[in-house]
């Protein structure tokens, strides 16, 4: 016979009170209709329907008096079981007593600054199986506390050196919220701290909501994901030389061949309308290319099928069934009242760096199926648990097992793993992970779940520090797994250590070019550029690509090139240096003379992209985004070029055209989707 108590959803209402949902489970034959929870400071009632095994309700404990007295009692009149709760070392511990006052070992639930961390059940020892299970659960307490401490220290250390407005994080398993933590400010100027109820933009994680809503209609038989989109949206049009029609299957998996979309028109049908001015780069279903406008189209599809606006669809089909009461289905002025301010780098025209101050990011009303939901980490943990349970919500299924398998199928390789329907999956240490990251104006997000272990992480923040949210989520999940396997200490060191550059000695060379020579040395596994009497420590962003902390290198990232595995060249913007002994490639390049009209700095009124630069290097043109990402341009026609965002793609889905030719220079650059950039004379 087992008796167990679960306390969940602890919230620090103020300095005096702690409120907690409580669930007590007993043998069915011993239950009354109500179980009274009597604590030393007052009475609370736990209730359930007759005959049910689980009783739930609210327990309210005055925190200060509770800490002073060190005791609170919960008693079940049905069986005489008494639970004693006492805080020891920051851990809320509870013991069970029968009428003879025998006890079982203590288990506990830790809270930090009023935020839920974790809960475990105490069990009466009746057989060997229960004893073993209890011992294992008790043994998890210390590794879990170590993991949380390590994670907390890692986040605080990062935020001390990297400007971030605020951050909220949640850890969960399949059944319960394990931990939440909040850092920084929702409003830096006003010094308003982030709390459990601070909302953040979840960014492109919204796409998973959109795909989920589509799959629900597919299950209901009201929508065919393999039917041409034009059968639902007759006005949908894109230039194509392929016979294969675009379907919802293609849109959800980013395999339709569409452009990314006009950022100025996202959140409206106009973005979809502009597709008629673009062309497919490949046959639908044959390759991956991330497309926001594809999800705009899915939102329009849902609205036509259901006869409701997209936010109302999300509210009715997802937020309400999951009881995500702190979430907003779109970014409106009502949600803005409780939304953390978004922040980006003061220098939004160049690769961001932790030394750059923050500036408030623009806000605007937004109702885009590609990224408009506002939420809290706690609510998003509820959403993630639904996926960890393969579509099962707390009260009913939101998705069948079959549809869940479709959403997590590996259709084609994508940016963050194999793409299914709105969800990326990847194998990590033999475990199947699902994920979706996000980035908006002033916000970044990450949702990550281990489907095999049933563990998950949500990270929401205001600022720009990618790929750290991705790294943080993976580190947190590794710590959770280690704690569950009772060896968190083996993971702690690797998470807390300063990042070292793999094979740093590869870069210790001298390179020569038109602008002189550059010498790199290595000290303590760090790559250092000797420049004008300075020792500049390079910061690795991804393999062979570095940020160089000096004004002369501010607008571009540095790239090392390899041949047969060895470093042979170094590139930065339009400049190029080679290793004289190792480089065996061409040293002069021929290109069309008219290309000299294109290099320069172009600015858009759109707050999304804002700045792009065109450079000419080694006979090739590149479009360089403000964050430093380089896209090689391939000629398609007069002053028109194609490019790809994904290096592994064989197609060129994106387009750029140069216009307004004055005195041998192009003064206007237009991207596919009608986003225009005007030349400026700043670097």
From TrEMBL:
Keywords: Hydrolase. InterPro entries: AmpC-like, Beta-lactam-related, Beta-lactam/transpept-like. Residues 151-464 form the Beta-lactamase-related domain. It holds the Pfam family Beta-lactamase. Residues 98-130 are annotated as: Disordered. One of its GO terms (molecular function) is hydrolase activity. This is Class A beta-lactamase-related serine hydrolase.
């Amino acid at each position: 016979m087992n008796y167990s108590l679960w306390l969940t959803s602890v919230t620090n209402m103020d300095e005096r009170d702690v409120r907690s949902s409580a669930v007590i489970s007993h043998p069915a034959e011993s239950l009354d209709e109500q179980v009274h929870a009597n604590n030393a400071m007052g009475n609370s009632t736990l209730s359930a329907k007759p005959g049910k095994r689980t009783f739930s309700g609210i327990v309210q404990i005055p925190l200060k008096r509770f800490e002073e007295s060190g005791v609170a009692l919960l008693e079940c009149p049905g069986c005489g079981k008494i639970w004693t709760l006492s805080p020891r070392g920051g851990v809320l511990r509870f013991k069970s007593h029968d009428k003879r006052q025998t006890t079982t070992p203590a288990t506990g639930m830790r809270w930090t600054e009023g935020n839920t961390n974790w809960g475990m059940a105490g069990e009466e020892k009746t057989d060997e199986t229960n004893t073993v299970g209890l011992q294992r659960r008790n043994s998890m307490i210390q590794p879990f506390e170590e993991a949380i401490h390590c994670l907390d220290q890692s986040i605080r250390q990062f935020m001390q050196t990297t400007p971030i407005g605020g951050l909220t994080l949640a850890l969960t398993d399949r059944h319960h919220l394990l931990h939440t933590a909040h850092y920084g400010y929702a409003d830096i100027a006003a010094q308003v701290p982030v709390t459990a109820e601070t909302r953040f933009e979840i960014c492109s994680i919204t796409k998973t909501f959109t795909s989920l809503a589509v799959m629900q209609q597919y299950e209901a038989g009201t929508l065919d994901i393999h039917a041409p989109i034009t059968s639902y949206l007759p006005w949908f049009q894109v230039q194509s030389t392929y016979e294969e029609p675009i379907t919802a299957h293609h849109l959800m998996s980013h395999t339709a061949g569409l452009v990314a979309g006009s950022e100025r028109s996202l959140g409206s049908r106009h973005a979809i309308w502009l597709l008629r001015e673009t062309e497919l780069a490949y046959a639908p279903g044959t390759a991956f290319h991330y497309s926001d406008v594809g999800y705009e189209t899915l939102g329009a599809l849902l609205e036509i099928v259901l006869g409701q606006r997209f936010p109302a669809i999300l509210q009715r089909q997802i937020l309400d069934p999951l009881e995500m009461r702190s979430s907003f289905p779109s970014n409106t002025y009502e949600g803005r009242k409780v939304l953390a301010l978004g922040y980006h780098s003061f220098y939004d025209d160049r690769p961001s760096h932790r030394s750059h101050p923050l500036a408030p990011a623009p806000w605007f009303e937004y109702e885009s199926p590609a990224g408009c939901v506002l939420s809290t980490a706690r609510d998003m943990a509820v959403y993630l648990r639904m996926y960890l349970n393969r579509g099962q919500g707390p009260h009913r299924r939101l998705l069948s097992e079959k549809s869940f398998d479709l959403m997590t199928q590996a259709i084609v390789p994508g940016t963050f793993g194999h793409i299914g329907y709105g969800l990326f999956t990847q194998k990590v240490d033999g475990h199947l992970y699902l994920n979706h990251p996000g980035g908006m104006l002033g916000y970044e997000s990450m949702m990550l779940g281990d489907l095999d272990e049933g563990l998950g992480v949500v990270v929401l923040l205001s600022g720009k520090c990618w790929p750290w949210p991705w790294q943080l989520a993976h580190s947190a999940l590794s710590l959770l797994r280690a704690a569950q396997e009772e060896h968190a200490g083996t993971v702690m060191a690797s998470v807390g250590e300063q990042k070292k550059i793999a094979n740093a000695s590869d870069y210790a060379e001298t390179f020569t070019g038109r602008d002189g020579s550059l010498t790199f040395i290595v000290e303590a596994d760090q790559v250092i550029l000797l420049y004008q009497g300075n020792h500049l420590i390079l910061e690795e962003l991804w393999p062979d690509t570095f940020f160089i902390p000096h004004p002369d290198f501010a607008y571009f990232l540095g790239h090392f090139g390899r041949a047969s595995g060895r470093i042979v060249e170094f590139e930065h913007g339009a400049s190029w240096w080679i290793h004289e002994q190792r480089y065996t490639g061409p040293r002069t390049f021929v290109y069309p003379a008219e290309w000299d009209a294109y290099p320069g700095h172009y600015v858009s009124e759109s707050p999304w992209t804002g700045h792009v630069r065109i450079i000419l290097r080694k006979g090739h043109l590149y479009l360089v985004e403000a964050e430093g990402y380089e896209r090689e341009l391939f000629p398609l026609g007069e002053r028109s070029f194609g490019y790809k965002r994904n290096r592994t793609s064989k197609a060129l889905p994106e387009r750029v055209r140069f216009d307004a030719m004055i005195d041998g220079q192009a003064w206007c650059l237009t991207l596919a989707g009608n986003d225009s950039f005007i030349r400026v004379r700043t670097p």
